[in-house]
Amino acid sequence: MEHWVRFVVLMVCLFFPPMVECKVRRYTFNVMTKSTTKLCSTKSIVTVNGQFPGPTLYAREDDTVLVNVVNQVKYNVSIHWHGVRQLRTGWADGPAYITQCPIQPGQNYLYNFTISGQRGTLLWHAHILWLRATLHGAIVILPKRGVPYPFPKPHKEVVVTLGEWWKSDTEAVINQALKSGLAPNVSDAHTINGHPGPLSNCPSQGGFTLPVLSGKTYMLRIINAALNEELFFKIAGHKLTVVEVDATYVKPFNTDTIVIAPGQTTNALIATNQNTGKYLVTASPFMDSPIAVDNMTAKATIHYSGTLASTATTLTKPPPQNATQVANNFINSLRSLNSKKYPAKVPQTIDHNLMFTVGLGVNPCPTCKAGNGSRVVASMNNVTFVMPTTALLQAHYFNISGVFTTDFPSKPAHVFDYTGKQPRNLQTKTGTKVFKLAYNSTVQLVLQDTGIISPENHPIHLHGFNFFAIGKGLGNYNPNKDPKNFNLIDPVERNTIGVPSGGWVAIRFRADNPGVWFMHCHLEVHTTWGLKMAFLVANGKGPNESILPPPHDLPKC
Ligand SMILES: *[C@@H]1O[C@H](CO)[C@@H](O)[C@H](O)[C@H]1NC(C)=O
Ligand SMILES: *[C@@H]1O[C@H](CO)[C@@H](O)[C@H](O)[C@H]1NC(C)=O
Ligand SMILES: *[C@@H]1O[C@H](CO)[C@@H](O)[C@H](O)[C@H]1NC(C)=O
Ligand SMILES: *[C@@H]1O[C@H](CO)[C@@H](O)[C@H](O)[C@H]1NC(C)=O
Ligand SMILES: *[C@@H]1O[C@H](CO)[C@@H](O)[C@H](O)[C@H]1NC(C)=O
Ligand SMILES: *[C@@H]1O[C@H](CO)[C@@H](O)[C@H](O)[C@H]1NC(C)=O
Ligand SMILES: *[C@@H]1O[C@H](CO)[C@@H](O)[C@H](O)[C@H]1NC(C)=O
Ligand SMILES: *[C@@H]1O[C@H](CO)[C@@H](O)[C@H](O)[C@H]1NC(C)=O
Ligand SMILES: *[C@@H]1O[C@H](CO)[C@@H](O)[C@H](O)[C@H]1NC(C)=O
Ligand SMILES: *[C@@H]1O[C@H](CO)[C@@H](O)[C@H](O)[C@H]1NC(C)=O
Ligand SMILES: [Cu+2]
Question: What is this structure's pTM?
Answer without folding.
Answer: 0.95
